[in-house]
Design goal:
Layout lengths: L1 E7 L2 E6 L9 E11 L1 H8 L9 E2 L3 E9 L11 E4 L2 E2 L5 H4 L10 E2 L11 E5 L3 E3 L6 H5 L1 H13 L7 E5 L3 H13 L2 E5 L3 H9 L4 E3 L6 H8 L5 E6 L7 H7 E9 L11 H6 L3 E4 L7 H10 L8 E6 L3 H10 L6 E5 L1
Parallel strand pairs: 11-12, 11-14, 12-13, 14-15, 15-16, 17-18
Antiparallel strand pairs: 1-2, 1-4, 3-5, 3-9, 3-18, 5-6, 6-10, 7-8
Bound molecules: zinc ion (2 copies).
Length: 337
């Protein structure tokens, strides 16, 4: 079989590898569609501090079951499935309270262990979620990015009555926007790329702001009648934005963080204490696949709107270079297998 192989940073090749066999409790997945994520780009460029090399990348993928290992029940050859890339130990403190996405021994397909940019992958069936046969494989591959939204909105207890400021209108900002609009939440979106803001308006953003043209803090002040915004989700992750988030939050406000920067952010304790702000980190997803699959079925989100380009997987290198060179034009790029 062919795989997308990263031997070391900046070295990506399509390589022949032996087809794996499904072990005990595993299924052999014939991968049919996979999304390219910012973190795949970071592994390629050597800027993901968590990645190990060499690596078959890819953590947003779906396919059909080609074979079943020993002791597997509830799945059949031919089932269409989406893959939850989170694996956990089941024993540490985080696992013991149901927070398996921050397990001490967390391993993510495509980051810490080989992932889905391969024609076949052996996966524990605990990580597989059946999706309807009527779905495209691409739709199956889009479940994972929406689980990022499901996770941060559940961490921050987003409600329909909230006002939500989303920092960033790239793929993650857009899935958060769709997920929040599904609840009826009023949303403002900030981004420095005009076409992304247009897209955000089409997806139901009430206010869009380009901070290069307008003061975001003033726009949010006007939008909230000077009260501040009760909920902010930061899908940009730039450390120097953080003080502004603290200022824009309303008393008793919540801030969800998704960034992976190692740089410190200036933090004014008075701001957080005076307003009793709650600050939530959100990583990957905590068993959110069933929820997102039901969202896709109720039709209140439209995952395909996220897809901007498609490439055959043997052109993975060209696809990743395209993402690199066209940051404002590209949203989600799908590799087809
Ligand atoms: Zn991703
Ligand atoms: Zn654990």
């Amino acid at each position: 079989m062919k795989v997308v192989f990263i031997a070391e940073p900046h070295s990506l090749e399509i390589k022949e590898a032996p087809t794996p066999a499904a072990g005990k409790g595993e299924a052999l997945l014939r991968v049919r569609a996979a999304g390219i994520c910012g973190s795949d780009m970071h592994i390629y460029h050597g800027t993901n501090p968590l990645a190990k090399y060499p690596r078959i990348i890819g953590h947003e993928f779906a396919g059909e079951i080609a074979a079943l290992g020993e002791g597997v029940e509830g799945f059949s050859v031919g089932d269409k499935v989406a893959v939850d890339p989170v694996t956990s130990c089941g024993e540490c403190y985080a696992c013991s309270i149901g927070r398996r996405n921050v397990c001490e021994r967390l391993e993510v397909f495509g980051v810490h262990r080989d992932g889905g940019f391969a024609e076949y992958v052996a996966i524990p069936v605990a990580n597989l979620h059946k999706v309807p046969f009527s779905w495209s494989f691409e739709k199956g591959a889009l479940v994972e990015p929406f689980t990022i939204a499901a996770n941060v909105l559940s961490r921050t207890e987003c409600a329909g009555s909230d006002k939500l400021l989303i920092m960033g209108a790239g793929p993650i900002g857009q899935v958060i926007l769709q997920a929040a609009r599904r609840l009826g939440t009023a949303c403002a979106v900030s981004d420095i790329v005009g076409v992304r803001l247009e897209k955000a308006r089409r997806l139901g953003a009430e206010l869009t702001v380009n901070p290069k043209e307008t003061s975001l803090e003033e726009a949010i002040g006007a939008w909230t009648g000077g009260k501040g915004v009760p909920l902010i989700v930061d899908a940009v992750g730039s450390p120097d934005l953080f003080p502004s988030l603290l200022r824009m939050a309303s008393p008793a406000g919540r801030i969800g963080l998704l960034g992976f920067s190692k740089e410190p952010s200036p933090f004014v304790q008075l701001e957080a204490v005076r307003k009793e702000l709650s600050i939530f980190g959100s990583r990957l997803n905590r068993n959110k696949f069933p929820e997102v699959i039901s969202w896709f079925d109720d039709g209140l989100v439209d995952p395909e709107l996220l897809v901007s380009h498609r490439f055959p997987f043997v052109k993975a290198k060209e696809a990743m270079e395209f993402v690199q060179e066209h940051p404002s034009e590209v949203c989600k790029v799908i590799l087809e297998f």
